[in-house]
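Exercise: predict the fold of this chain.
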Amino acid sequence: MGKKILITGGSGLIGKPLTRLLLQSGYVVNHLSRNPQPHGNANIHVFNWDIEQQQLDEECINGVEAIIHLAGAGIEDKRWTNKRKEEIIHSRTASISLIYNLLKRKPDHQVKSIISASAIGYYGNRKNELLTESSAAGSGFLPEACIAWEDAVDKGTELNLRVVTLRTGIVLSEHGGALPQLAKPIKFGLGAALGNGRQFMPWIHIQDVIRMYLFAVENPDIAGTYNMTSPNPERNLELTEALAMVLDKKLWLPHVPVFALQMLMGEMKAIVLDSVKTSAEKIKSEGFR
């Protein structure tokens, strides 16, 4: 039997293909779920948890050497009311705290590493500034949420765990996330750059995302924070033009004005209008390709 990994958020956009990759690589995978159902795969074990009720099946960490923390309420699923903002932050911080409290209660556990998602939203709107992992956090709700998220995860160092935080960019996958939303209007001949189109959008392909998580699992010498983005961040207009070319469509509409995005999305417009130009040199220097 291979090494055992515990994943929170194992049924999400990243969790599903990551689980498949881990299984293919010889690992046994545990999932935490509010609605545990058998997977029909002997190498996937599903355990119940309820963050609001502070309930967690303590057997979920038996034999586990690394925990991958992906769980959290969707950033783009609902408008950012004050209640929704609290839910976004709480779902990320309370979930990892629940796990850390379990580790404290079971000091004989075998967990050595916590590998957690974060987001490039940490940096906020930074125009053309090249952002490395040592760059300061930005201002606004997205940086606020990421700071709270990362601070909660970093408490793992107090438990002598190796902590790796991956600040995820815009994940491109055919199965969800940003790509279908960006492509849909283009398919109908309604594609256009957002705002002035000059904002950097640090993208990464889903296959590189899951490979980077595996890389973090299998390289115990790496620790700390890494940008999980392509070495080639593109401006919104460039990305839109590339999608139109792939889909063999013309872009004939003018840019979508900021006021229209404000009416449609409210404060959430930061997701598509903030300019974040990230460097991937740190993870590349560790040997990731």
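Check your answer against the key: The longest strand covers residues 44-50.
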